[in-house]
Amino acid sequence: MARSYILKKRAQQQVETRLRIVEAAVELHTKLGPAATTFSMVAEKAGVQRHTLYAYFPDERSLLMACSGHVEERDPVPDATAWRDIVDRTLRLTTGLRAIYAWFERNEVLLGNVLRDAEQDKLVQEIGRLRYGPAIDAWHDVLGAKLNANQRAMLHLALSFYTWRSLAREAGLKPAAAVDAMVGAVNGAAVTSLAR
User: Fold this and answer.
1) I need a surface site. Which of 55, 93, 96, 147 has the fewest CB within 10 A?
2) What is the pLDDT of residues 13-30, one digit of tens each?
3) Which one-letter DSSP state was computed for residue 194?
4) CA geometry: angle at 97 spanning 94 and 101, to 5°?
5) Does the pTM of the predicted model rise above 0.85?
């Protein structure tokens, strides 16, 4: 009985240590970006020795996968499946963009750092694509249904984190106004393509 208790306690401590390491890494990724975060920084922030960190995460890839999984669990990427049954195209697009832009806002600093680093760091780019690519592809698929080529181009622009940041932070639009602006742009592209 005592041995079982000790094993359970040890397992619980391992879970807590792993979580502490992941949370420390996510905090550093949010502050500095994943490319600028070193294992030494993570170990220090988590209060563990480097060898302990390596015991849990033998390489950067395993740590980045754990961090992205933790972030996804904490605040899941909006699921396009929920919008598929909305028949009205404008309502579907509005509903989807509201959810996506709210997610962008909640995760603004971390997403900005990750996307910046992904432009130069192949591993950050790979993990981002593995973790978030399928959800983003689904956004394009569901929200882009029955759109022409020009509208799909505008949708691509609307679904960009950088577009949201430009509208919300640089132009100072409120969330609903940013969504309305991009819904208008996507719908307006239908008229443009017919006029040519």
Assistant:
1) 55
2) 888 999 999 999 999 999
3) H
4) 140
5) yes
